[in-house]
Design a protein that fits this description.
This protein has 117 residues and is an all-alpha fold. Helices cover 72% and strands 0% of the residues.
Length: 117
């Protein structure tokens, strides 16, 4: 029984961590804590027996419900993170084009090159 209760406790901690508001200043901290809890949970999952008693079945049901919530919130978190990365890359390339607007112009523009050998 202690295995399922411990697994439920870690799943609750993970759910609370995923519920935290993510800002630019705490993004790394949240990601590290979520990754640590997922790793800890994965280690416990290996040794988790099949639920046999009523309390273990109840804990398993709670874990299942919390896992769905966690999965949804992590999907949203990942999509926001990907969107932020794309925005930063686009901003970086726009800044490069602003500082050197003629970088993409070919140096052969308007020149005649003989292709014969």
């Amino acid at each position: 029984m202690a295995g399922w209760q411990e697994f439920l406790r870690i799943t609750n901690k993970l759910c609370r961590q995923v519920d935290r508001r993510v800002t630019d200043s705490n993004r790394e901290d949240v990601a590290v804590k979520v990754q640590m809890l997922l790793h800890e949970r994965g280690l416990l999952m290996k040794d988790l027996p099949q639920p046999e008693t009523e309390s273990e079945l109840s804990a398993a049901r709670q874990v299942y419900m919390l896992n769905q919530t966690i999965s949804e919130k992590l999907t949203v978190y990942m999509s926001k993170l990907k969107k932020k990365i794309r925005h930063v890359r686009k901003q970086h390339s726009s800044q490069k084009k602003y500082t050197n607007p003629y970088q993409s112009v070919s140096s052969y523009d308007g020149m005649f090159l003989d292709q014969k050998k």
